[in-house]
Amino acid sequence: MKKLWMILLMVTVLALSGCMYPDSERSGSTIPYEEQLRAVQSAVEQYQENSGGLLPIKTRDQDVDAFIKYPIDFSKIVPAHLEKIPSNAYETGGIYQYVIIDVEENPTVKLVDLNGPERIRELNLRKSVNGHVPIEEMLTKDVFLPNFSAMGLKEAPTVKSPYSDRELPIILSSDGNFYIDYTADLHDAVADKKADVESGEDIRHILYDENPILPAYSLPYTVDEEDNVIFMTEK
């Protein structure tokens, strides 16, 4: 009886450990390590220097989201310029896609959190089944809040912000695609005067200038004459 009790206790502890520390977190795959970013940045620069200016990137369609347009092809820099692929990279089971932005002027390594596109992928599956997306509210003439209840969801899906503690809503554009809504984070950044922004410019850069993670899968935003954050489609 005592032996059976010990076995049950061990199983319970292991089960709780698994819940508290998922495999991805135990492996450090959810943390955007600065040293890993620096190592990949250095490897990209070495590759570019040795290849006559080429970048170690995968080919993507020209009309893809600018933030995910240039994903890093690790096969081109590992192991020649980088010992191994970072543990938090998608290729090794992590939640981040390593990408390069500003490829013409200043190629810079950044990260895309793949939790967001995973939520969007799930919504796209529901959209393909239903054939349409019911609308709950029109935010602008081109941006809408979907009726997630009518889509069969008990609650509206959200995405954890990489810039704050809030859960970000998912919206729908007139192009038929779902996007993550960063309005609240941008409002905070503008209100705190963290950066000078002008009406008519895409202000999303104020989120990632000092942060390794990009606001991918989002619509472009700007500010109006009173520094209120608005979708650029409103201009």
Automatic annotation (TrEMBL):
The keyword Signal applies. The keyword Signal applies. Keywords: Signal. This is Uncharacterized protein. Residues 1-22 form the signal peptide.
